[in-house]
Amino acid sequence: MTDKTENLSCYILTCNSGKHLGSILAAIRNYVDDTVIIDSGSTDDTEAISHKFGARFISRKFDNFRDQRIFAIGQCKYRWVLCLDSDEIPDEVFGIYLSDLKNEGFTVGNDRPDAFRFKRHWFVLGKKVHAFYPISSPDYPIRLFNREKVGFVEDARHVHETISGARNIAILGGAVMHYSCESTADLLDKLNLYTSLAALDLKKRGATAGSIQVIVHPAGAWLKWYIAKGGWKDGRVGWLLGKYAFQYTRRKYLILSQYANPKSGKA
Fold it and tell me: Which of these, 104, 135, 139, 137, lies nearest to 119 by C-alpha position?
């Protein structure tokens, strides 16, 4: 401990997240001073695991990811906040770098970043992948930040939301493993939830959906995420994720078209 050391909060959004939550909490317990679980209706052992590791467990009905994150940040005790999803497990090197960063008061030499990115590797159906629409893997999300300067604003997107306000961003060492969608049922659930929220975001931005969007954009998504982004390298899983990119894009534009023409039918 030094005079520079600052405390760190971490929030995790959960819903039936017992599979990985224990591993996440075990990985962060030596360098996180305040852990808060924001749960949206778990019926498994998520709450019991949270209490086992001394995390605060708060229930909030899910409306969208943006507002869930804004609420979560408001529950954190300290100004420096680490955000992890309930299927993201930091590696040991990540912990070493983060501990050193805390001890330096979240400064890097003479530099005082507002936020930090970290490397994140994606696994889908148990396989490490090159892309999962709309993310390339590895990616570098901003997930560690000073909440007095950085946060999610009210007009941010409801899904695939991005943080704003960071003027000076550094990269944290180590990596986080993201184990997303471990079954085809998980993929379908994600498709249903995310496309509804994505359509709302399109509507909010004043986008329109006609036959061109419904036909051309899905084909473009498949070409980009299966061909250009290297999904073809991931075998059967890559093929499924190429179809996911196509279906996701098609469905969100079909849902958007229903806002203008409610009698047009289901997506």
Answer: 139
Same-domain pairing of 33 and 68: yes
Residues 173 and 208 in one domain: no
Closest by Cα among 79, 41, 39 to 55: 39
**Rounded distance between C-alpha atoms, residue 49 and residue 2, angstroms:** 32
pTM: 0.85
Which of 180, 205, 228 finishes a domain?
A: 180
Percentage of the chain lying above the pLDDT 70 cut: 91
In the three-class reduction of DSSP (H, G, I as helix; E, B as strand; rest coil), residue 77 is classed as: coil
pLDDT digits (tens, 9 = 90+) for 205-218: 777 677 778 889 99
Q: Residue 156 is part of which domain span?
A: 9-180
Residue 88's pLDDT is: 97
Same domain, 132 and 202: no
In sequence order, which residues have a C-beta less than 8 Å from that of residue 121 and are 6 or more positions away?
Answer: 128, 137, 138, 175, 176, 177, 178
